[in-house]
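Q: What does the assembly look like in three dimensions?
Context provided by user:
Components: two
Sequences:
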Amino acid sequence: MIDVINRAGGDDTSRGKSRDVSGDAAPGIERHEVKAVNAAANRELYASQKAIYPKRVYGTFRNLKWLAMALTLGVYYLLPWIRWERGENLPNQAFLIDFSNQRILMFGLEIWAQEFYYVTGLLVVATLLLYLITALAGRVWCGYSCPQTVWTDLMIAVERFWQGDRNARMRLDKGPWSFAKIWKKLATHITWIVISVATGGMMVFYFRDAPTLMMEFINFEAPAIAYIFLGVFAGTTYLLGGFAREQVCTYMCPWPRIQGALFDADSLLVTYHDKRGEPRGPHKKGESWDDRGDCISCRQCVVVCPMGIDIRDGPQLECIQCALCVDACNSIMDKIGRPKNLISYDSYRSLETSAEGDHTKWKLIRPRTITYSVLLLAVCALMGYGLLSKSTVDVSVLRDRNPLFVRQSDGGVRNGYTLKILNKHYETRSFKISTDGLPNPEISMVGIGDEKNSIDVPSDDLRILRIYIKVPRNDLDKLSAEIADFDFSVLDLKDNSVSKRSTTFRRPK
Amino acid sequence: MAKKPEIDNVTGVDTTGHEWDGIKELNNPLPKWWVWTWYACILWAVVYMVFYPAWPTLTGYTKGLLGYSQRQLVADNLAAAKAAQTKFIDAVATKSLGEIQQNPELLRFALAGGKASFKDNCAPCHGRGAEGRTGYPNLNDDDWLWGGTPSAIYESIRFGIRSTHDDTRMSDMPKFGPDEILDTAQISDVANYVLSLSGTNSDEQSVTRGAAIFKENCASCHADDGAGMAALGAPNLKDALWLYGSSKEEVTTSINTGRGGVMPHWTGRLNDTTIKELTLYVHSLGGGQ
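A: Here is the predicted structure of the complete assembly.
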């Protein structure tokens, strides 16, 4: 690998004084003598990870990435600290994955273990959304919002803060161990570790009341499992964000492989317009732009790439489509006065047709995206309906199966039921139970008495009742059938809402 | 590699030089850290083999330095579960049936134990749902031959009915036919009278004759009105429940040859705690008095 020919202090304004003019891509544009470390031609049987030193870049997509980082990290670090009043029996944390009580609390929403299908639905929505976005604009997830990308970006920013930009970092790594090198490296790693511990710590707060756990951490009283998971998440953040970086995306993650099947010729991918760019080569001042491409081989697109690839080689597995090369190239095109977007989001089809002078418009609405959108809307509607009609009182009835009925000494017939009332309100509620569709039923509830008595169910609790219903001998013939359908009605005495559950009453033949 | 690698035109990746039927293996190199992770896993496996049971031998298996055994783990867990139950078992053993019924937590424990013991010991005759069958009483209903209070049930289970225990519940219905107490016509009349008690007969003359015979021969146990007597295990003949069937033939057979089901005594076979749990379970089935 040829390393950078570095000219100390060689910024753009000093070009006139520079002796080695052949190093310039165009007047004033520094040309990096660099090969893409992950280019296919440079491979061995077992590959060591080669250091990538992404250069600072400015532009639209870099700003978008900062914004995405601020949003995702902001949500991640702040969410556990939001409070949400839920009454005395329940935790007051807005977002809590409460394993001990088998439920997920999300602001006003509670998902109990038996309603886990909502989480499944959420995952289906997320998957369809990813499909849709990938069909529209490629690996948006990978480039902007994947935790691996976000934390790697953060770690690189830290690295840059302590050790300087690309050239300074490369110089530092090549140079001998000195006091300056030691403290710069030390500062970098300490900051990384602080970030990692904060990351791992925050993960744990999603599972236990955050302020309580914080105090427990400070006093070294937290449960062992909290320390273990803090350690695991801190360790993986440090390792994957600080060291492994692009290796995770290239070798560990299955998603790039799956995404490869989700693009089509109309997906907008970060693309180098080779028809416009080639033949590439350095451009001398005053030289004509006719009969040559717009690419001046400045390799800015290569040095800013966090994945260590050359976008001009075409679409590649490694490319996470972060579009930093677009920003880098556009700033250069600005400087040399050529049109922007030599590298840009573009579709393969548009690339093909524009070469023939016939620039077709992007085709965002097509069967694939329509299908994904319709599916997405359908699942969202289903989820929305489910969530809106979700009851805060759950009633279930289990009829006895052995014996199916019991003949009483007075000739009446008794059936037994187990009725469960689940109160998801944040207060104790009282209920009255009655039946619909049985002739003169005598209801007796074990430990409670007859149906005139109300049943209290504490907030956030399940009450299991044994209920016997007897139909007197003279009324047996009034039953609609040997197996007669009827409803249990559970009346909520506070808001007069009624939950009905149908079941059957059996009599002998 | 000494030779310059050959580049595959389609992928732009160099080949390893291995070729089968014109298909060349591409060299997409494995990351070195991945190889090292693999070596680390091998090392881990070796360490694991030293500390944990791993290899079969001719007579058993290598035990490992930590002495870990899943069998032992199960035994320990069972012992721990037993120890955790001791508190409840002791409470059931020392408290009276009434006291246990007043304590919801203890009652729940006793009912769970009773349910399990019932299925082990009582279900063969009384059925898994205690629903009974001809000759074996249904324990869910409100009709009790020997009484349905907790203490009556407790005694029935402990000493049995017509069992070999000295304190057994005992009563004997005569064989009115073979013992030549009543003749066939009289038995038929009594049967008609008994059936009329629960409203299922029409021959009024026969019923009237039967009533007189009943007063003389049966009322001493079954009471004047036929309501029975729990102290003697004499069933209520007025209700809708018939242990041996409610047809004329079946009732006639009952009077002719007498009835006397047998239930074994459980004291000595089950411990007192289990019998208490069974009592409470049977009492809880819906007919307990």
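Follow-up: Residues 1-21 of chain A have pLDDT under 50 and may be disordered.
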